[in-house]
Amino acid sequence: MSLYQLSKLLYNLNRDDKMKAQFAQNRSLILAGYDLSEEEKNAIINADIGLIYVLGVNGQILMHFAALCGIEWADYLQMMRDGIKKHGPVRAGVYALMTNPDEKLII
User: Which region holds residue 14: left if phi is over 0, alpha if psi is between -120 and 50, else beta?
Assistant: First the structure.
C-alpha cells in the first residue's frame, strides 16, 4: 500500500483545475503518474470513498475528492461508515487510531 502516493494524488487533484479536467476525461491517465496499488487505483477510478477511507486517507483530503465526484456530505459520511463494514478497520494513518474495538466509526 502507498498511502503517501494516494494522499498526494488526492491533494494535487483537489487543488489543480487542469488536473481535475484531465481526471474527468481519463482517470487512468492521471493515476499513471503515481505509484499506487491496483486496489488504490480501482478505489479512485470508482470513487469508492469507503475503501479510500479504510486505506487511510485523511478526511480533510478525502472530503474534497468526494465533493469533486458529486457526493453529498451525508452520503460521504455514510460511505466511510459503510467502508469499515465492508473492508474492515482503517488500515493506516491517523484514522487507524480512531476506531473503537467493535469497529464503529467515531464521528
Answer: alpha
Among 60, 59, 26, residue whose Cα is nearest residue 44? 26
Q: Which residue has the cell 467515531?
A: 106
Report d(CA 78, CA 49) in Å as an integer.
9
Contact residues for 6 (Cβ-Cβ < 8 A; gap 6+): 34, 36, 40, 44, 52, 55, 56, 57
List strand residue ranges (DSSP E) for the chain, in order.
Answer: none
pLDDT, one tens digit per residue, over 14-29 is 999 999 999 999 998 8
Give exposure, 30-67, as e/b (b: 16+ Cβ within 10 Å): bbeebebeeebbebbeebbbbbbbbbbbebebbbebbe
Q: What is the pTM of this model?
A: 0.85
